[in-house]
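Field reference: sequence -> structure
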Amino acid sequence: MKIYEHKSYEEYVAAQTKVNKSKIKWVYAKEHGIAKICAHKKEASYIICHGTRNGGEMRFFLKHFPDTYIIGSEISDTADQFENTIQHDFSMPREEWIGKADIVYSNSFDHSNDPKKTIETWRDQLNETGSIYLEYNEGQSVCEPADCLDATETEIKELIENSGLTIVDRFIGSQGSAVLVCKRSS
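Structure field:
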């Protein structure tokens, strides 16, 4: 596993913001991928999506769970342009999210500059029956300023399992990505 080393936190945020703005209209997640997650979970009343750019995946979740509370985090200053999205670094805990989520979803884990802290923060956001749906494409894994994390799926699985989580399922999501379904370990 390799992690790009930024000179400062500000440099990390600037790199994330730059790529966000260059792809602001692009949605990585596809509706059929989110539909698979919704069919897998079946019920959700509280969903947190991380690294949402323009909130596309949140709109897909709302089609399947229209009465669900859904919030998205985006580190870029563009966050306030999109409904139900707040400007926030997804690796940082937020007291109001701890223990709340039925679903924590992200396809932006490769943007984490601290993957251990990120996965532990997301773990802590789960309620007792909640699941993390981590969409990850090893083939797109690089080590550069914006996509800071370069890791194999095996390395991601080891990180997850060493963070108090168990991988309970795996299926193919959007763009051929693996979706790892994680729950708190017993």
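Note: The first strand starts at residue 2 and ends at 3.
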